[in-house]
Design brief:
- This protein is an alpha+beta fold.
- Helix 2 runs antiparallel to helix 4, helix 2 runs antiparallel to helix 7 and helix 2 packs antiparallel against helix 8.
- The longest helix is centred in the last third of the chain and has 67 residues.
- The two termini are 27 Å apart.
């Protein structure tokens, strides 16, 4: 009986206690660790999918906003003689199909005066107060012991906020001060010494018999657009041609300049196609993330908001104000498709309205509320999703918390399995000792049986 028990335990051939403990420990540990590792890998896949979705959304919103801000989708003006006139489109406005003839007869000028006598820039010039009057607004210029010099006078004028710039230039025998005001007739200026000022300041006065010399009088820009006369204080004119900023460069009476507008239709068409392609890429990233188990299902809220872009009114145009109006529609799987023929018809019907969806107007009646445009609407979705406690922020925090939980869970498993392995080693170590004792007893019994058998055979 004893021999049978020993053989069944492998005692006769020797039991490898160390290997037995290792095998039993592995059988207990590996399934538990494998389960947690699998969950951690799934969680990491969700984090990667979320990061890709966020990157695609940010890239889409930023690139579209950039195209709007840098004027890529704006109508651009054209001029027949750029040496006389320059024209640009202002952000938020459209040049449309404007055409006109402009004749620049006079440029706006700023009044300039200069001191008649050259002097040292650091020598005293006299102390007291002076009055600088620009466009009927008077400013007090004070010359005291600390700034009693030509340089001090120039600095005081520049610091007055009157809009007059004082400069000191070198001349034979010394320096002169030059004063220059803003352009336009209304910005003519005078500089007078106040009663009680030192007589030396009279050399730096202008107006009512002042000692300074007029270099150039102030004047308005004079120009005609299609025969209609205009006068402006600046050579940059923003308020005459809708959507355009004109820069008058040279007076050229009798030399009309033709201006017009060129709409980037090819770029608009390409942008519409690119919008569909990039939207689909972003949507697929979101779909991949939201289909995963766990908290990423909250991303379907973001998917719904993006889907709502198709029906959102993006401009105040009566008939062409949605993406569906320019040939963009949703497919069954939530992606977008483009009907190029419908886009072409919309452009033929009103190219400005199509442009406005991507480059919305901005004026008194066209605001972000009435005419958000697709870039503004997409950016609003992006900012909401990535803001604190937004959809992406919430999901990201949830996944990060799960990563921490799984890491802690794995650590606890390892700790418990270490305890279990130690218990096995103790138990099988005791069994090994008992088997050793059994073996000794077995040997003794076998010897006695052998002795008895030998005695019996005699």
């Amino acid at each position: 009986m004893v021999s049978s028990i020993a053989n069944s335990l492998g005692f006769g051939s020797g039991v490898d206690i160390k290997q037995l403990v290792a095998d039993l420990s592995a059988a207990s540990r590996e399934p538990k660790v494998a389960r947690v590792v699998k969950l951690a890998q799934q969680n990491q896949a969700q984090i990667s999918a979320l990061a890709q979705a966020r990157s695609d959304l940010e890239g889409f919103a930023n690139s579209l906003s950039q195209m709007v801000s840098d004027g890529t989708l704006r109508s651009t003006p054209t001029v027949s003689d750029a040496s006389i006139l320059g024209a640009t489109t202002r952000a938020g406005l459209h040049a449309d199909s404007f055409s006109a003839t402009v004749e620049v007869t006079q440029l706006a000028r700023a009044q300039t005066v200069y001191s008649s006598i050259a002097a040292s820039r650091t020598a005293p010039i006299g102390q007291g107060t002076m009055t600088l009057t620009v466009g009927g607004v008077a400013r007090t210029i004070t010359i005291g012991s600390a700034n009693d010099s030509l340089t001090g006078l120039a600095n005081a004028i520049n610091a007055s906020g009157a809009g007059v710039t004082a400069s000191i230039v070198a001349d034979e025998g010394g320096h002169r001060i030059i004063l220059k005001g803003p352009t336009g007739e209304a910005n003519a200026f005078t500089l007078t010494a106040d009663p009680g000022a030192d007589p030396g300041l009279d050399a730096f006065t202008y107006g009512s018999g002042g000692a300074m010399t007029l270099g150039q009088s102030a004047a308005n820009a004079e120009f005609k657009i299609d025969g209609i006369a205009f006068s402006r204080a600046s050579n940059i004119v923003d308020d005459v041609v809708p959507g355009m900023s004109l820069t008058l460069k040279k007076a050229a009476p009798g030399e009309p300049v033709d201006i017009g507008a060129s709409r980037p239709l090819d770029m608009i068409k390409q942008t519409v196609g690119d919008f569909v392609a990039v939207y689909n890429q972003m949507k697929q990233s979101l779909m991949a993330a939201s289909k995963m188990s766990g908290s990423t299902t909250a991303l379907r809220e973001l998917e719904r908001e993006l889907g709502n872009l198709m029906s959102m009114v993006l401009t105040s145009h009566p008939t062409i104000n949605k993406l569906t109006d320019i040939g963009i529609s949703s497919t069954r799987d939530g992606l977008l498709s483009l009907d190029a023929a419908k886009l072409e018809k919309a452009i033929e019907a009103d190219a400005a309205a199509v442009e406005a969806i991507f480059n919305p107007r901005r004026d008194a009646t066209h605001t972000a509320a009435t005419d958000p445009g697709i870039a503004f609407a997409l950016d609003a979705i992006h900012r909401k999703a990535t803001a604190t406690n937004g959809v992406i922020d919430r999901v990201s925090k949830s996944l990060e918390a799960r990563t921490k939980t799984l890491t802690e869970q794995l650590e606890r498993i390892e700790q418990r399995e270490d305890v279990y392995r130690a218990r096995l080693e103790k138990q099988f170590g005791g069994l090994d000792a008992k088997l050793a004792a059994f073996k000794a007893t077995q040997s003794y019994l076998e010897q006695q049986v052998e002795i008895w058998n030998n005695q019996y055979r005699r």
